[in-house]
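Structure (tokenized):
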């Protein structure tokens, strides 16, 4: 029996070594035939001597057990995600915040894998549990499924107790293979590799997961100090030593802003050629002591951030143009096209803005078009491939009546409008805008819920939101609503009454008044009544307002219906005062435009708030209209742009003298 046991151990060692060389080192020394022979012999011996089968045997990777549901498991240390950033300015902001507490900080720079987080627990070097991230505190036990992933070691190279975190993902090749199989079998295709990985790892039958060719990339140890690790770079090296696949060859190191930007640009160029999908770069402070100094917020680590890559463009065929009606009655044409993957997600719709946009690009149904998408922004059509246009294509003609209510459309400026105030689409859109995050920020509302409440007659206008408590009983009978969710929704509605004036102004949906203009107006007039009584001449002279916006504001407040809604909101207790700092229009910098860049002695928002309270305008880009660029250490490309354009560049001392 000892001889059999020793042979089984020998076979496991041979197979594990082959798996490590193939999946981790990408340098196999065993032929496929030799691997198959060893694997078949081990299967035979385990069948003949089941009492000798080891828990960490590689034959367990084929799956075999099915479960009714996934058990909930608590993470010993919360699995927090990072905040996302999207541009160089936000990278500068992050670096500036870090250096306030850790002036000499350096960063590890890692590809942001487009998969899902997974936690692995090992006891004495043997995998005993795998779990999803879940809500960060509680995840789901997916041990049986994770054991089928060949790049997950069932036994480590060291007999230690450890938790390892990383990304469960599906390679591009495996994704294409799976979708081709699904297409042949008439099964719905996965939208992207991330969705495919998530769906595969949550199969109740581990045999199905075993067929999906998932992979695992390790990137984090929650308690590195227990292994005498002092940096994130050392953590990755230790994980590699334990037998994990890591991005050790792709990872970078940054001592300053320039290093970070160079790494991002370089990785961006390699992105398409990588065997797996990535959607950005993760920046982590390298020193674990520095991480402790920086700590966490209630939601995210302060020592790390996730940079998301900018938009990408793909080609598809325009099938149809559909028209939607917004809260102001604006009718927007939308391109409907063959589904295509853009920036990691499957999309089939893009905005065409207005009819003039269609005419300027000569967009026609049947055209091959280029689509662009960034972050969560709705995709847009960039251009038409005219050389691929069909001979029988027909010019696009704008509709002349509302697609919802049938009313005659009216053209104003470059846009067409439905002027029927009773059009359902307009009312629904105005409510959706009012509750949105940048407006009154009422949690719990989405497009579907607003539409359902409107159709049920609960909320026909924004005023009705504050009477929703009358329908609590009816809400309880609706699918997806329990007592807790209804209470949270009603609490959020009540809390919105305390918002500062600028949120209310934006939420009202005054034409041309966006977030920034709403803030300027709120700071300038302090109360809604002051703004309501303002005349056209004084409004048009306010910085960033001008003729068009001034006329729109006057027209809005001259409308009896709009004033009736505002009076109802006031009666309901909605705040109409500006709660921020008051603006000083007599200061030396009033009306001037500033750009802030580099690491300063205080957070950038402090300077931004101070300048805005002095009547100045703070923007993110340097242009010919910029008056001053305030620079700190490592100022980046904005400093170069200011020098090129001859813009006045000032340091903190000069800034302090300027605002006195």
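Design, position by position:
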């Amino acid at each position: 029996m000892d001889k059999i046991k020793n042979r089984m151990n020998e076979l496991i060692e041979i197979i594990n070594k082959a798996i490590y060389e193939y999946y981790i080192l990408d340098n196999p020394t065993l032929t496929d035939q030799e691997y198959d022979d060893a694997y078949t012999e081990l299967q035979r011996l385990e069948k003949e001597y089941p009492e000798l089968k080891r828990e960490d045997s590689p034959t367990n990777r084929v799956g075999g057990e099915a479960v009714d549901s996934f058990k909930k498991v608590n993470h010993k240390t919360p699995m927090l995600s990072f905040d996302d950033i999207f541009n160089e300015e936000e990278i500068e902001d992050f670096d500036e915040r870090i250096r306030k507490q850790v002036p000499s900080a350096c960063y590890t720079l890692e590809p942001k894998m487009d998969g899902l987080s997974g936690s692995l627990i090992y006891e004495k070097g043997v995998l005993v549990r795998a779990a999803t991230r879940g809500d960060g505190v509680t995840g789901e036990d997916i041990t049986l499924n994770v054991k089928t992933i060949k790049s997950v070691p069932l036994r480590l190279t060291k007999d230690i107790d450890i938790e390892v975190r990383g990304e469960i993902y599906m390679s591009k090749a495996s994704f294409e293979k799976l979708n081709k199989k699904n297409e042949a079998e008439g099964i719905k295709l996965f939208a992207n590799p991330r969705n495919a990985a998530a769906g595969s790892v949550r199969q109740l039958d581990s045999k199905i997961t075993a067929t999906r060719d998932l992979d695992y990339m390790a990137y984090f140890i929650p308690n590195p100090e227990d292994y005498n690790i002092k940096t994130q770079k050392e953590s990755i090296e230790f994980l590699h030593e334990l037998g994990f696949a890591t991005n050790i060859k792709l990872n970078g190191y940054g001592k300053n802003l320039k290093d970070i930007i160079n790494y991002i640009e370089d990785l961006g160029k390699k992105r398409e050629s990588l065997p797996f999908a990535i959607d950005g770069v993760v920046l982590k402070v390298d020193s674990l002591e520095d991480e402790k100094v920086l700590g966490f917020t209630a939601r995210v680590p302060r020592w790390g951030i996730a940079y998301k890559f900018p938009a990408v463009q793909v080609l598809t065929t325009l099938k149809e143009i559909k028209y939607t009606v917004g809260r102001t009655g604006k009718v927007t044409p939308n391109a409907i096209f063959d589904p295509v993957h853009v920036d990691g997600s499957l999309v089939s719709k893009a905005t065409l803005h207005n009819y003039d946009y269609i005419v300027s690009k000569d967009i026609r149904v049947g055209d091959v078009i280029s689509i662009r998408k960034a972050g969560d922004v709705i995709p847009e059509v960039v251009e038409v491939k005219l050389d691929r246009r069909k001979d029988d294509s027909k010019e696009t003609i704008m509709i002349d009546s509302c697609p919802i209510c049938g009313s005659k459309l009216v053209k104003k400026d470059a846009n067409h409008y439905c002027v029927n105030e009773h059009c359902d689409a307009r009312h629904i859109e105005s409510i959706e805008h009012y509750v949105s995050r940048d407006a009154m920020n009422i949690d719990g509302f989405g497009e579907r819920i607003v539409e359902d409440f409107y159709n049920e007659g609960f909320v026909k206008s924004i005023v009705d939101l504050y009477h929703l408590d009358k329908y609590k009983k009816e809400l309880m009978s609706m699918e997806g609503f329990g007592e807790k969710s209804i209470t949270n929704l009603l609490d959020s509605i009540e809390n919105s009454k305390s918002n500062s004036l600028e949120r209310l102004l934006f939420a009202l949906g005054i034409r041309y008044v966006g977030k920034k203009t709403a803030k300027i107006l709120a700071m300038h007039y302090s109360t809604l009544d002051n703004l309501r009584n303002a005349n056209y001449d004084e409004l048009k002279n306010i910085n960033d307002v001008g003729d068009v916006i001034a006329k729109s504001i006057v027209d809005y407040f001259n409308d009896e219906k709009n004033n009736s809604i505002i009076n109802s909101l006031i009666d309901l207790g909605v705040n109409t005062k500006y709660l921020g700092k008051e603006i000083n229009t007599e200061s030396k910098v009033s009306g001037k435009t500033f750009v802030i860049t580099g690491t300063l002695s205080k957070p950038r928002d402090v300077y931004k708030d101070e300048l805005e309270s002095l009547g100045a305008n703070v923007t993110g880009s340097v242009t010919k209209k910029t008056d001053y660029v305030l620079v700190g250490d490592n100022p980046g490309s904005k400093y170069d742009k200011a020098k090129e354009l001859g813009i006045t560049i000032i340091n903190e001392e000069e800034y302090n003298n300027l605002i006195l």
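Reviewer-requested clarification: The chain has six domains: 2-54, 84-308, 312-418, 424-498, 501-571, 593-659. Residues 593-659 form a domain with the Rossmann fold fold (CATH 3.40.50.10190).
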